[in-house]
Design a protein that fits this description.
It comes from Candidatus Schekmanbacteria bacterium RBG_13_48_7. The protein has 13 helices and 8 strands. It has helices at about 20-25, 30-35, 40-50, 60-65, 90-100, 100-115, 130-145, 175-180, 210-215, 215-220, 225-230, 260-270, 300-305, and strands spanning about 75-80, 120-125, 160-165, 205-210, 240-245, 250-255, 280, 290. The strands form 3 sheets. Strands 3-2-1-4 form a 4-stranded parallel beta sheet, sandwiched between helices. It has a two-stranded antiparallel sheet with strand order 5-6. It is globular and about 60 Å long.
Length: about 325
């Protein structure tokens, strides 16, 4: 089943404009979350969905949110990781360019779930154009009352800020990102403490990837069970595969977790250039182990790729 979650509206002209986004169901999930749900029930739906981090590690998103200490007297922060420095990975950039309000809606709902009133989008320095898109998107959301004080007449307040990095690859790692965000050298911290306990400015912090957060509006709109029915039992939902290298049709393909690697390369990407034989595949970005051509029949989900001796990572193939 080729269910589209993230790319289903990307073909609509001007979907980047908040008016067009709203005409196509945009911000309905946020309205539902604020009017009919509470932070706990939003988190429960995300837990039920089985959504896992799309930045590389694949940690369950709802479980990560649950690590925020209850009744903390410190401010809680949500950081959207838009650093995307993994070579061969260009799916977060696609989301920002093609449907930025979907990402922002996911950020707002996620902040409501974890009790955050300030969110930062940390974007890599080279993404100047994409940073401007996000700033325009945020400005439109403030004008429509989706950001700021008493969002949609509720008691929920939220401010979102775009922070541009300086291009260091290591800043994709969440604690190095936090160091950079605080104005220091982007160098990873020792863990524990984990960011959920002591993150940005030593306050409880959740760091989620762009693709992860962009899935949240769909989950709230259709329910966690619907989302969990897509993909495999342990790797639910779809995945944005960034396909590059010696294939005939490179690009970003949204397909369910568990799709065979052979089908991905030969059916969707049109096979190897010049009809030459496949020699090797990097299944999840340049930092993961290379697979030989013998692994062509593995399924592209977290567990299957790990069993083959590599990692799904950022799904850059």
């Amino acid at each position: 089943m080729d269910e589209k979650i993230l790319t289903q509206n990307m073909h609509i002209p001007d979907i980047q404009n908040i008016r067009v986004y709203m005409q196509n169901g945009g911000y309905e999930s946020l309205k539902k979350a604020l009017a009919q749900m509470n932070p706990g029930s939003v988190t429960d739906e995300v837990l039920k969905s089985g959504l896992r981090g799309r930045g590389g590690a694949g940690f369950p998103t709802g479980r990560k949110w649950k690590f925020i200490p209850q009744n903390t007297n410190k401010p809680v922060y949500l950081i959207c990781n838009a650093d995307e420095s993994e070579p061969g990975t260009f799916k977060d950039r696609l989301i920002i360019e093609k449907n930025p309000h979907m990402l922002l809606e996911g950020i707002i709902i996620s902040c409501f779930a974890i009790g955050s009133h300030t969110s930062y989008i940390y974007i890599r320095g080279e993404f100047y154009h994409q940073a401007r898109i996000l700033e325009k998107t945020i400005s439109e959301a403030y004008q429509k009352g989706f950001l700021g004080k008493n969002i949609l007449g509720s008691e929920f307040d939220l401010d979102v800020v775009v922070h541009r990095g300086a291009g260091a690859y290591i800043c994709g790692e969440e604690t190095a990102l936090l160091e950079s965000l605080e104005g220091r050298r982007g160098f990873p911290r020792l863990k524990p403490p984990f960011p959920a306990v002591a993150g940005f400015m030593q306050c409880p912090t959740i760091v989620n990837n762009v693709e992860t957060l962009a899935n949240v509006p769909y989950i709230i709109k259709y329910g966690g069970s619907k989302y969990a029915s897509i993909g495999t039992e342990k790797s639910t939902g779809t995945r944005l595969f960034s396909m590059s290298g010696h294939v005939n049709k490179p690009g970003v393909y949204e397909l369910p977790h568990g799709i065979p690697l052979r089908k991905l390369i030969y059916d969707y990407c049109g096979g190897i250039k010049g009809g030459r034989p496949l020699k090797a595949v990097i299944p999840g970005g340049s930092s993961v182990p290379v697979l030989s051509a013998e692994s062509i029949d593995i399924k592209m989900d977290f567990e299957s790729v790990a069993e083959a001796g590599s990692m799904l990572g950022s799904a850059a193939v």
